[in-house]
Structures are given as C-alpha cells and as structure tokens.
Amino acid sequence: MQARKALDYSIPLLSVAAALGLWELVSQTGTIVERDLPAMSTTVSELWTLVQTSSFWIAFGQTVRGWAIGLGLAAALAIPIGIALGSSPLAAAAFRVPIEFLRPIPSAALIPLLFLTLGTNIRSEIFLATFGAFWPLLVQTMYGVRDVDPLAVDTARSFGVGPLERLYRITLPSAVPYIVTGARISSTVALILAFTAELFMGIPGLGQKVNFAESFGLNEQLYALALATGFLGVAIHFAVTRVERWALRWHPSQREAVA
Amino acid sequence: MAPRLAGGDPAIAMLEIRHLTKTYGTGETATHAIGDVSFTIEAGEFVCVVGPSGCGKTTLLKCIAGLLRPSGGEVLLRGRRVVEPPEEMALVFQEYSRSLMPWASVRNNVLLPLRHKPLSKRERMSLVEEALGAVGLVRFMDRYPWQLSGGMQQRVAIARALAYQPSILLMDEPFASVDAQTRGDLEDLVLRVREEFNITILFVTHDIDESVYLSDRIVVLTHAPTEVKELIKVDLPRPRDQIETKELTEFAHLRAHVYRLIKREQVPAETLTSSPATG
Amino acid sequence: MSARTYRITKVAAEVAVPILILVGWQLWTISADDPKFPKPTTILDKFQELWLFAQFGTHVVPSLERIGLGFAIAVLAGVALGVPLGLSSVARKAAMPHIEYWRAIPPPALLPISIVLLHSIGNVQKVSFIAFFCLFPVLLNTIDGVRGIEPTLIETARSYGVPWHERIARIVLPAALPQIVAGMRNSLALAVIMMVLSEYFSSTSGVGYVLLISKNTFQLVPMWAAILLIGVLGYVLNLLFILAERRVLAWHRGWRAATPQ
What is the mean pLDDT of the segment spanning C227-255? Predict the structure, then answer.
C-alpha cells in the first residue's frame, strides 16, 4: 500500500521533471533557437523576477477581478433564468430558438463591437466574460431543474408542500450538481475571455502584459507571463473542481460501487 | 458443425483441476478465496458446481478459464496446462447484456470470436447461422441485442459460444438473471445443445434444483476458503424433463442432500458451538 | 388549460418569440438611429451581398479549411493518445500533470508564442494553434470513455482469445465512441473560437481577419455581417455534427432507451 502511494506521487513528479529537463536540453543545444524558445532556466528566472514586481501582481489581480466579476454576474443572471426556464416547459420552448442561436456565437466575435461601444476598459472585459460564461451556466441549470426526479416532486406535492418550498427543498438541491458543473465550465470560459479582452483590447491585466511583451519582442517575458497565466488557470481549475466534487459528494455518480 | 469430441484421448480427462488455490493480498489482510479445489471432468460430462453464496464460484471459474492466475495448483485441459484462455474453451457469463456488444447486430456479436480464426468468410457465416439455428434465433440475426428479451440475449451468448466450436463450455450462473419460466426453457436448450454437439459442460449455479436437473455430477463447494465438500453422482434418466424428472423420488433425495450440505456450509465456523462430533 | 391548448400555445410561443425579438430589434435600431447599431434588415442585406457567395471563397473557405484541418488533427491525436492513456494507469499518471496544465491555460496566452515559435502567421501556425487546444476535450473524453468500458466485455473478448489489436479496434473504440463523440462536439465549438481568435490576432485572410479589418476601417455594417457570419458558421457546423452523430450513435440511443439504468 505504501509503495503504491509513493508511486502515485513519484510518477507525475518524474514526468514533470523530465519535461522540464527536455525543455532545457532543447534550448541549450540550440535545437530551437534561444530567441524563439528561451531556456527553461531563463524563463523561470524571468518569472521569478516578475513575481517580485508589484506591477505583475497588479495585473494578476486585474485578470482575477475580470474573471470573478464576469463569472459572478453570469451566475447571478443565468441561475435564476435557468430555474425559470427549466421549471416551465412553455417558457423553455418559447426561448429555445433565441438561445440556440445566441449560444454558439463565439464571444470573441463581439470584440470589435465592444471596441466601438463600451470602449477599451474594464466594462468591455466584464461584458465579454459575462456573455461567454452565461450560456453554459444557463444550459446546465435548465438541465438540472428539468432532471429532478418527478417522483420526489409528486411525493412533496402529496404532502401539501407548496410550489416555492418544493423549489427550495427538492428541485434546487437536486439541480445543484448540474449548476456546479456549469459553473466549472463557465469559470474556464470567463478566464479565457477576461484574458482575451486584455490581450486584444489592451485592457489592464495579464493579457495586456502579454500583448506588450509581444509587441516589443520581449520573448523571455512573454514565455514567463504565459507560464504564469497557465498556473493561474490551473489554480482556478483546481479550486473549482474541488468545489464541484464537494457539491456532488452525495450524488449517485460519485458513489463507489458496493462490492 | 461436427461434434467436437472426435480426436481426444479417452485416457486423459477432459479437464483436471489440481489443488487450485487463490489468495488476494498478502500477510494478515490476505483473503483466501479458494483454499484447495481438486476435481476432474471427463469428456462429454455435464458437471454442476454449487456452493453457498460468496464461496468464490466465479473466482474458481475464472481461474479455470485462464482469466485469472491461480495462486497455487494448476488446471489441465486435456493434459495441457491452462495459463491463458484456451482455444477449446468457451465461457458464458451471467450478465449477458454486459457481455454482448450493443453497437453490433446479433450476427456480428456471434461472429466476434470467429474473426481471428483462420476460416473463410463463408465458413464463418455458416457457423454463425448454425449456432443461431441451434438456439432458435435465426430470425433475429440482424437485430441489436438490446432489442431482444433477456432470455433471448442469453441465447445469443450461448450461440456465440457454440459458433466458437469449443470442446468444453463453462457457464457462470447463466440463468440467474432470467425469469423462472424462461430459465426452464434455457435449461432444456443447454441439454439439447449438449446432446447435439457433444460438448463437455461445467455449469456454476446457486440454484440447487437446476444443478440436480441438469447434471451428471455435482461438485459441492465449502464456503471460503473454498474446497470441494463432496462429489455427487446424479443417476437420473436422460433425456431429462422439467415435469417428469422433477417428480421422481430420486430427484427429491438428491436435491435434499445437496441442500443439506449447503445449508451447513452457510453457518460461519466461528459461531458453531457444537462439538466436533456433531454437525 | 387542456393538453391540446397547451401544445398549441407552446408551438405558437416557439414561433412568435423569435419573431417578436427580431421585430423589436428592428424597431429599436430605427429609433436609436445610431450607426453603431444598424438595422437588422441592413445587416442581412450586407450579409447576403458579401457572403452569399461573393467573398465566400476568399475568406470563408480558408477559415473552414483551418477549422477542418485543426479539428481533424485534434481528433486523431486525441483518440490515438487517449486509448493508451485510458488503458494504462501508469501512463496516465505520468501524463496527467501535463494534461492538467495545458487544458487549464487560457489559449490566447499562447497566441503570441505560437507565432514566435513557428515563425509565421500562415496556415501552419493557425492550424497548429487550433489543433493543440482542440486536442484536450477529445483526449480527456477518450480517456474517460476507455476507462469506463464494461469489464465484462473485455473479459468476454479475452476468453475467446481475441487478439489485443482486435480488442482495441472492435471493442474499446466502439465502446468509448459515445464519450469520444461528446468530446468531439466540444472540440468543434472550440475550433470555431480558436479560429476566430487566431485570425483576429494576426492573419491575412479568413473570417476573423474580416472582422478585424472592418472594425479598423469603421465599416460597421460589414462588421455586423461578419459577426452574423461567425454565428451562422458555428450554428451550421454544430448542426451538421449533430446530424452525423445521430447516425453514428443510433445504436447508443436505442440501447440506452432499452436498458434500465
């Protein structure tokens, strides 16, 4: 058992170490020119330098802020609307066509429009992130509400439980796993769009810093920032997945089969 | 499909299980699933294996089939050691719906084991058709398994085993998930198929009536760690009949005998307070 | 209300609401009289003029080519990598940190790097960018699909002596297919987005390029037409995919319906 656990940790670590080593090797031997792919050691030291500057952390915070507000607004809109549409087949049918048309529009296509209307400031970033994050949450919430076990609802009704209380006590808890899964998907989308807005529109944040580094040919900084952005993405993904797992802990899909 | 019995040395038993053991884990937390199982099956015999629940019947069958490596002992098929699923052996599981491919037609399901055999396309097709004919499902060749009833799906699994032309058929509680009436039909189907193709059959079941009805011999197992408790010869006349055979007094005797053996096995050793002389 | 009235109301709503929205939009743009928000009718006119089919070959075709190629590579690589990773827990443990990192990084962060590394803003760079990020939904779903295969199926195949390459071709892949297809659907949607982003960032042709150029030259109606085009593209591709999926996975729907879960 102990050996198993040790293996569980050592294999991934070795794998990462090997990849980093390979990166270093590739740039040291000049397989890819140093200018195009800075060495792993160079990139890491550049990142270390960056991490000690306040401007990096300010930008970091701006991106996180854009992500958080975008996700929060999306949730504040999508969850109530999703509950309403999920509870009423009539309403769902009425809005089916508009949703099906608006959903596949890549939010990125709205960037030029935002340039001209809201302008190159945080409002555009938030609008973009909210717009993109809205749809997965809406759809998942609708599924979750629709998927409630009708038997549970009928049982509650037969005990005289009113519609609002039924919603609160039966439908919502049952829909929570779906909503949280939607939040996970939306979180990824919100981060991508917040960053995209910063990159394409020069709005303050990590994306803007990447844009800056690219325009001035500062490749080492470019790679370091990309690395940092990757870690931000991983951190957010990890946190949200933990929340999802916690929210789903009682769900049948999470149960281990009884031998 | 020619009877598969031709070409075997009658002096060597069809299947010999010698001191088979299977243990999971090591040290104190080890689970001794199979303690020491030994028995022999002659060619053409119908042998049933019964035992209390959880006595490792399925583990035993998987070891015999070469799907699991035993911890000790060996399995000899016609004198040759079984280390991986042998060519001459076919297996029918209890969960028929999980052993059939839902994306393939009944025909293609039965065809699967034949694809890697050196046969021509026509030969394969004719084997498939004969096998489906033997179980009465030719009409459903192009349906999907999930379009058929449970009993019919199990017949597809049996047809698949037949098309493979094995000399020995292992069946792991194949009719446990089927309703009682269909079970009777399937039992008779297996008996008919055995007559027609002269296959040796090793049949695991927890249904005592079924074991007496079908077999030439019954192997009664103990609870874990499993050993052979008793080998019982079943001398009932053939062909067997669901009504007439079960009316015979010999049937009732045999049935009661097996039942008693198993009931005793179901009490865990620690709770027996009687002295070794009794029970 | 009776069941019949309800059904009629439902259908009526489904038809009426989109129409009302369009009419409302038209009226609002007329009253707002803002060049930034042209009338829907004007946009549709421009759309027809540009994209059906005058500039279709110049811009839509390159974009579709990039999507198609990037998507195809992503699917092939995703399945080719996903099957062994799904089957081997050791390989999976080794690959997981990398997969978790690359699937979480916001793709635009790598846009400038893809240009620097590949020394170009041509098709190779775009297709590589698209393929790289579209790989992950397929890869992850393939791994899940392979891991979730019914063990009895594999045991059955083993018991009949089916050789390992046939087991993979005839059992593992078909069994994992529903999951793989779900991943493909996500990948396709992602491919459209990646195409727009990469073309908008730096390109000399394509739908994203048109979007950029019309904005830069303040051609507002073509800009809206381009937005509409992107939406239509995404919608049509998704629709085609669903139609294909319906055929390929017909057995799966039937099986699910027939088998109590």
Answer: 91
Cis peptide before C218 (omega within 30 of 0): no
- DSSP string of C133-182? HHHHHHHHHHHHHHHTS-HHHHHHHHHTT--HHHHIIIIIHHHHHHHHHH
> Which residues does chain A have with pLDDT short of 50?
256-259
Closest listed residue to residue B134, CA positions, set B198, B184, B205: B198
For residue B171, what are the β-bridge partners? B92, B203
Per-residue pLDDT, B1: 42
Cβ contacts of B103 on chain C, cutoff 8 Å: 174-175, 177, 251-252, 255
Say how far apart CA B52 and CA B67 lie, in whole Å: 23
- Residue A81 touches partner C, C-beta closer than 8 Å: no
Q: Which pair of tokens denotes residue A46?
A: 């550049």
Distance CA C50, CA C56 (A): 7
In the block, tokens 């005839």 appear at C170
Residue by residue, DSSP assigns A34-103 as TTTS--HHHHHHHHHHHHTSHHHHHHHHHHHHHHHHHHHHHHHHHHHHHHHHHH-HHHHHHTHHHHHHHT
Q: What are phi and psi of C221, to 5 degrees?
A: -65, -45
Partner-chain residue, chosen from B66, B89, B146, that has the shortest CB–CB distance to C255: B146
> Residue C32 class from Cβ within 10 Å (0-12 exposed, 13-18 middle, 19+ buried)?
exposed
CA C127-A35-A208 angle, to 5 degrees, is: 65
Nearest to C63, CA basis, from C168, C194, C190: C194
What is the residue whose two structure tokens read 């009732």? B252
Please give the backbone phi and psi of residue B145, each rounded to the nearest 5 degrees, phi first.
-55, -40
The residue of C19, C29, C99, C116 whose CB has the most chain A CBs within 10 angstroms, and thus the best one to mutate to test that interface, is C116
pLDDT band at B272 (very low <50, low <70, confident <90, very high): very low
Which amino acid is present at A229?
T
State whether B101 and C252 contact (CB < 8 Å).
Answer: no
Q: What is the pLDDT of residue B222?
A: 87
**Among B62, B66, B101, whose Cβ lies nearest the Cβ of C174?**
B101
Pairing type for strands B168-172 and B200-204 reads parallel
Query: DSSP assignment, residue A205?
Result: S
Cβ–Cβ gap C105/A229 under 8 Å: yes
Instruction: Give one DSSP letter per residue of B185-209, joined into a string.
Output: HHHHHHHHHHHHHT-EEEEE-S-HH
Contact C109 A101 (CB under 8 A): no
Q: Phi and psi of B79, rounded to 5°?
A: 85, -10
Confidence (pTM):
0.85
What would the two tokens of residue B166 be? 């094995």
Among C153, C159, C164, C256, which would you mutate to test the B interface (most chain B Cβ atoms within 10 Å of its Cβ)? C159
pLDDT band for position B270 (cuts 50, 70, 90):
low
